[in-house]
Design a protein that fits this description.
This protein is 59% helix and 0% strand. It is mostly helical. The radius of gyration is 15 Å and the shape is globular.
């Protein structure tokens, strides 16, 4: 579910779908995401949902909303694109922008630094 959510967010940011499409997809799939037990997907979905509420209430504008989505995607990309390689496999983002999952990834220790 996380990959689908990230891909939908990316589609919105590159104008392949509208804000309404993104919101409708999220609302239609939010319960599935919550039920999946995927903590990362739940965290991202909850943040996007909260940002959509702020946008709809006029607390932020669409530019700020887009910036927040970009930030979420960058955070996820940094984690996935960071070296998570071990002798059993690796995880990364494909060149086409679609997220792929490796089945044998062992996450050791990851230190993130944001500017």
């Amino acid at each position: 579910m996380l990959n689908q959510l990230l891909n939908y967010m990316d589609s919105y940011l590159v104008s392949e779908c509208s804000l309404q499409d993104l919101e409708s997809w999220l609302l239609s799939n939010l319960q599935k995401i919550l039920d999946s037990g995927d903590e990362a997907a739940t965290k991202v979905a909850n943040q996007v949902d909260a940002d959509l509420v702020e946008l709809n209430e006029g607390l932020i504008d669409e530019t700020v909303f887009r910036n927040k989505l970009e930030s979420l995607l960058r955070q996820r990309e940094t984690i996935v694109s960071s070296t998570l390689s071990t002798s059993t496999g690796s995880a990364d983002k494909t060149i086409s922008g679609q997220w792929k999952e490796s089945t044998q990834v062992e996450v050791l220790h990851l230190t993130l630094q944001f500017a």
